[in-house]
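Researcher: Next entry in the queue.
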Amino acid sequence: MRLFIKVALTVSVILAGLVAGAIGVGAAVHEAFILYHRAPRQIVLYDMQRDVQLQLLNNVERYDVDPKRRYMIYAIPQENNPDHPRFNQQRCAWMDIKSSEERAEHWGEQCFVHVSPHGTQSLFVTQVGQVWTFYLHDADGVLEREWKVTQPGVTEVTTWSPNGSFIVTAFEVDTRHNGWTLYHANLITGEAAQLLEDANILSGQWDNRAASWSPYGNYLIIHVAPGNSLNTVQRMVVDAHGNMRDITLSTDPFFPHWLSDNVRIIQQEQQAETGRLVLTNVSDNSHQPMTDFADEWTVYQISSDEQFWLLRRYLKNQQYDLVLLNTNTLEQTIVAQSPGTLFATLLRDGQYVGYWTDTEAGLYRVATSAIQRFDVFDGPGSSFIESPNAAVPYAMQFDLAIGGGWRLRLFNLDTNDITTFEGDTDLVTGRWLPDGRHILLQNFARNNAADFLLSTDTMTLHRIDSVYDFATPDWSADRSQVIFGVGDGFGTQQIFLMDIEAATVQQLTDARVAESAPLWIR
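Model: Structure for this entry, 522 residues:
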């Protein structure tokens, strides 16, 4: 069954005004404070109920915030007064956010700050000459441990394991050829050791592209490019005790996928001009081939139970197959053959595959034993995206309508019903909000055209004034409200509050706000 809804801009919509400072308008604010960065280099605590801004810090160079928003750590620029006893040194400190009480401070020519993933610890790294000192504090700002590393370097970047058990710190020692020296420190046992010296980290920087943590944080994969070449890599794995081994199967910079067992990765093994996908156990460096050799394999998606992998097998002359792999039996089912496949995704925990083709514009449901056509539509369509909420049986497909305007198809995956919404405004995208029950339709054009908020509970569209790019969002604990910044392109932004159920948007600050993420203080 299909339900078609044409949306007129003047019929049955709820207007939500942008009211500067009008915190009492609309639904109640669930959390009372926002922490944000205001130019020039100021940290501000904004009491939304009283509409009062409290300046916590001035002239801050870098900072990090506890995920639970209890405290923050920060560094201010070097002292430039020649008469000051700490001339040319930076001060860094630990602060309780709500009371603004400082409980620890450190000094150095440079000072870097890092909060652990769960906020249970914080780390200050200071530099004096070639001596780097690490200060580890608990969640109350009490110093737990300190240690020193003697190492030349111009900067440091620390990556923290997801479980908080160990860190790897990269010191940049030579900016001419991406030279980094890596150290490991176990925060439970106190073990610390050098891992690599003057190594060329892939991508030339220490970021998520050059390192890959296992789901629980027991292992870290580091990609190293020997001899300044970014076309070949070594894939090194480090465990919590600083043991490191080479698990490279090929020199191709193919980034692996971790499986949930925390010890196995999918990587590509090369042979001549072909490659195959292999499961590698990083604990013992054992390998299990999962596919045959082809020109190239790409992992599109893995089902939540990890039994099914959706793969693209590249052949020759721009031809490829879309393949569903059952990892229990290693059986491969060809879902689609090129040309024409534009998009693919696993639906309902890997039971089905949905995809679009530009030849027949069809959405198919694919099981391991049969291929069932879901429906046929008049146009290729774009991304087919399920609700992130497993209790909501909907998937959305948003595209621009032929002849102008926009079109949103909402698929009920349990009943096969399709509800279509259309409008004639300049919307260009649709996205699920984290509650999985609402879809935000946005225009991005900054032309004062309205955006829409769609509720899958009531199948109604609520019109709201444009939220533009919805940048730097931070959600309330119950996911019913979100604060976000809207930049002006010149280094400043305004902060807004959106209430999802009430479909209202409120402006909270003026434009004199630095472009940094606003945060709820709970």
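Model: Confidence is low (pLDDT under 50) at residues 1-27, 203-209, 376-381.
Researcher: Noted, moving on.
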